[in-house]
Design goal:
By secondary structure, this protein is mainly α. It has one domain. It is 83% helix and 0% strand. The chain has 8 helices and no strands. The model has no long low-confidence stretch (mean pLDDT 79).
Length: 224
């Protein structure tokens, strides 16, 4: 059992490295997402230089989601039927799923950090309670990565996967985003910040449910 776990960890690491090598050869998607983040942050600053913290927070979330949809949901979109069969022989489905999820989280954290830096550069950083804000942000982007990875796998089985993935993802991540925005707004208020950890716990529970759902559905989806 222990040997199998070690073997799965090694396979997961190898698949993550393979994802990184593929992205290095074709960096257009991530580069386009960073360019979109930069352009949108600049436009937000030029349209309203004196921005309030709540508007700053709302723009941050909207721009982050819209600019990272395609970059994160791409994980399964380039896999044709022959590559599905090859991956199925290479590693168990759960290992493939976890490699995609982990790489998606790393990509999402990178893009979120880039968005924070760009917003801080152009419009300042109005967040006074950094720990709850960043904890909430990390949990939300983790949940978004879970959803994008699962929806990307589902959309790959259908025609026009590049079109279906963003469309199917938005309704699923909407509750997660709404709770995340509510929690992040509380971190801007000295009175409400004490209640933010309840929302953060709810986001953690939603992440766990999405992960269980992804693990359950992916087993049958991968073998289909």
């Amino acid at each position: 059992m222990q040997a199998q776990s070690v073997s799965n960890l090694k396979l997961t690491w190898l698949l993550i490295k393979a994802e990184w090598q593929l992205d290095k050869k074709k960096p257009a998607v991530i580069s386009a997402a960073v360019l979109q983040l930069m352009s949108m942050a600049l436009l937000a600053f030029l349209s309203q230089p004196q921005i309030t913290p709540k508007i700053w927070n709302s723009l941050f979330w909207v721009i982050l989601i819209l600019c990272t949809l395609q970059a994160i949901s791409k994980s399964f979109l380039g896999i044709n039927r022959a590559r599905w069969i090859y991956y199925n022989q290479l590693a168990p489905p759960i290992v493939i799923l976890w490699s995609k999820i982990i790489y998606g989280i790393l990509s999402m954290v990178f893009l979120t950090t880039a968005n924070l830096i760009l917003f801080g550069f152009f419009m300042g950083f109005p967040i006074q309670h950094g720990l709850p804000y960043l904890t909430n942000l990390l949990l939300v982007v983790t949940g978004i990565s879970f959803v994008f990875t699962l929806i990307g796998a589902i959309a790959t089985k259908a025609n026009q996967a590049g079109f279906l993935a963003p469309v199917l993802s938005l309704p699923v991540i909407l509750p997660l985003i709404l709770v995340g925005m509510k929690a992040s707004n509380k971190t801007l208020d000295p009175v409400l910040v004490s209640n933010v950890w309840k929302d953060i716990a709810l986001i953690g529970a939603l992440d766990f449910l999405v992960l269980i759902l992804a693990t359950t559905l992916f087993q049958s989806l991968w073998k289909d």
